[in-house]
Amino acid sequence: MTDDGRAWLEDLLRGLGVAYELFACDPALADTAAFCAAYGFSPEDSANTIVVIGKSDPPRFAACVTLAPYRLDVNRTVRDRLGTRKASFAPADETARLTGMQMGGVTVFGLPADLPIWVDARVMARDRIILGGGSRSWKVISTPDILRALPRTEIVEGLATDPRTP
Fold this sequence. Notes:
23% of the residues lie in helices and 27% in strands. It is of the alpha+beta class.
């Protein structure tokens, strides 16, 4: 990626036909809580992309998108969708190997063609979302329509749970 990934990211986004804004951020502030606090965004608008791994031979992977306050239901919904007995968050080194991106910057744009993209239905109810930009230097601000414009995207009810409710 060049210029911290901006040209790469713009090439990917240009063909989607959905309005977006690129937002430059300090790489040290790329993690969700720090980003939202530093730049005044709501965690409710922050849509995190998390790579998950199903423990099988060979392992199965998916990219999941959920809003920051929610937690992926890895032990049920994700595991069942992967069709494996166990599932977990992919380790940082495995995520980087699979996506070419480092934690804090992983995005749904430019993922391998065989990697499914599962989006928690709550994400689609937002007026705008903030996604990682493929590096820790960029975020993408758009409507959820940008996710519908991607091939392989599936909207999944119950992909994540709300840890704030009993």
